[in-house]
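Good morning N.,

You mentioned wanting to compare the apo and holo forms, so I went ahead and generated the holo version with GCB. This is what I fed in:
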Amino acid sequence: MKTYLSSILLFVFLNSFAQQKSSILPVRTSINLNQNWSFAKDPTRQFTALDFHNLKWSKVTIPHTWNAFDVMDDEPGYYRGIGWYKKKLALKPEWKNKKISLYFEGANQETTVYLNGKKIGSHIGGYTAFTIPLTDLKFNGTDEIAVKVDNSFNENIAPLTADFTFFGGMYRNVSLVVLNSIHFEDNQYASKGVYVHTNNVSKTTAEVIVNGNLINSSANAELTIRTTLTDATGKKINEAKTGIRSTLNKLIPFTLAAIKVNNPILWSPENPYLYQATTQLVDKTGKVLDEIKLPVGLRFFSFEAEKGFFLNGMPYKLIGTSRHQDFAGMGNAVPSALQVKDIELLKDMGGNFLRVAHYPQDQAVLDACDRMGILASVEIPIVNEITETEAFYRNCKNMQLEMIKQNYNHPSIIIWAYMNEVLLRMKFTKDPLRKEKYVTNIATLAQELEDLTRTTDPTRYTMMSNHGDVTGYTKAGLVKIPMLVGWNLYQGWYGGKSEDFGPNLDKIHQQMPDKPILVTEFGADVDPRIHAFSPVKFDKSLEYGMLYHQIYIAAILKRPFVAGAAVWNLSDFNSETRDETMPHINNKGLLTLDRQPKNTYYLYKANFQTKPFIKISDGSWKLRGGIATSNENTVTQLLQVISNTDTVELYVNGKSLGKKGVHERVSNWDVAFKNGKNEIKAVSFVSGVKMEDLSTLNFNLQPLALNNPEVPFKEINITLGSQRQFIDEHKQEIWLPSQAYKTGSWGNIGGEVFKIKNSSRQTYGTDKNIRGTANDPIYQTQLVGLDSYQLDVPKGKYEVTLHFAELMGNGIQSVLPYNLDSLIAVSKEVPPQRVFDVYLNDKLVIKNINLAATYGIANSVQKKFECSVADDKGIQILFKSIKGKAVLNALQVKKIN
Ligand code: GCB
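and this is what came out, ligand included:
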């Protein structure tokens, strides 16, 4: 919550900054309209722009989503319906003869716009910009715009289903654009109407070509269109111009002669050098009527099936991440400055590639890619499946055109894509003929989008991203349609082992030796609160994530035919339909939802950023704990140092542990932590220059014997049926896995680890959302059928809290929503109803507890007691079954006296 709050404050600050900056250009005036909107939900869907005054209005600022908070609760689902926005316009009288329009950078997902109660335009699709012309304005201060936005499911609008939350609202900037009656225009696709591309680029020469459309709504006129190309210092390189006689109210296309550049400075990630093309519309008297400034990056690139990607004639591995646009506490209504920060983080990690997934994003993102040198792929949101209707096809094609035309001028873009895992949610599986028709219809849509893309922009490559069903996509004819194929591969996560990834890539390449391929997704969920010393798939530990990514990075770098790879995902993101350890969030990010780096981010940084780098992998583990195995009062645990240097020297509490080599960017150390603060220093020398990283780790040591006078017992938090360590940073609690009871120490007597029976599905405990807690992992595992729990604590007064949740029963075995292995057997087992008593030091404290019947399935239940220990028998918790087997999920014991 703390981080959410600071994010929100930052948001308010950045937003007011954006207001002050609203740009007044000499010929195009663009006024930021983000302030002072009124907003109301219309769950009954019955209001119109004439009678909506009775709704419950509140003041909002754009960017705005109505789902920012309802996705943060524990309940599934979020408001998908209608939201109304209204605002009065302040118009200047001198604009009376100008062309005035509203420019929406994005609203999710169907928008209808009204002026003074009358409908004046609409837009379909949540991720592209649109322009609504304003005519019939009154100019007397009463002009009111109303905007109806609807994020309900609509079978004709992509995405239909996806592993991300479809936040509703006017979530990107809105502005008022005032233009002369003669201006550049693309009235259908909300682009600026001027396009720039390059041709014949080499190290010695390049050509810059500008084309576009203009419109004249005043009187026929003789006009000149002129483009001036300047270098990054503003020095003129050359210009091109043409004369045009414009006829009234007709869209007039134009193309200028190529502007030559000798010895160009080529654009690349290492040197993202931008020229600028300023295109002006000039009348007979020399007056400039319109002007558009566009960045120009001179670069040439190609993909080869065998050798991968080439930039400016050199082999170049594309490495980066995919990105979703949401942020902690804000949903998708994120100010541009924060979005730019993401690109800075990607750059800082050494990334040179961004897959803008699964939909076009804020212009600020691609502007940042242009400036910082990140090559990009952008796609429309056809995800998982299609609807076989004319309207769906039409909307998809329209989105594709909007995407290309609105983003055409970004030199960073090299790929347009249009489908993601479109065979994942296969329809008509029981009717082979109908299924075949469905697949044919997908291929037809793909081909139409492909053709449209190639004609609209022949300067870029096309791509489709598929899940691991190589045969399915090949048979469906989908592999041969796009110029590049992206594979989303999750060996070692949704199926198989991480080590299978490399051989799987080889197989794919052998099957389609002529096709350039990228790995457009790979990743493993990392919940940074979870750690494991023997990490296993699905435990969500940071340590499993590290191993997974080490294996993937090595496999990608080894294979030249892999043109590029994008980690799924740059950061964690909202996905309402997910449960698991952090319900409603997909944890495959290298950064958290509020952009804190996980250790996996540093692993990429050590691999791909070229400056010397050293980092103690404390990450989220500055607070950790462990159980002493002897009476030494130290606990030896693994500590990793992430670095791109060859050797690391590690100091613990001022003492050197010696030097060690770095393997796959990690050096592993067994550190004997003492109780309390441990000062760690990692040192490396690069070309004689010393570099170091410092960290203070707070270690909570549990002595072997709980009555050890040197480490007096204060508190212990234990999870059962788990081998993970869980850190609750807010409460500063460390949860350690239980152990079998040892005399003098503590542990469970009896009990089996909870497993979902008769299921080939892999989970760690259950992956069901546990209601009533944010610490789901504590409750998602348990011991079943235990006899007792014994803690040999010293004499004193204690608070004992037992944590339960019923993990069996209807609904508990939901299939992972995005499990890519479709052949998973789901247990249909009905829960054994358990009823049991609990005794604390011989006293009956819980009688006849029936978790399922009393509290329901997957609800967290806490029972707190006090007890006094007056002898050396410690604390004994006894479980007596009446029906079925007793369970315990977690246990906390605190000394209070
Ligand atoms: C995929 C999807 C992506 C999901 C991801 C996951 O293959 O393309 O949208 O979020 O897997 O995490 O399951």
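Residues 1-25, 811-830 have pLDDT under 50 and may be disordered.

Happy to go through it together on a call whenever suits you.

Best,
F.
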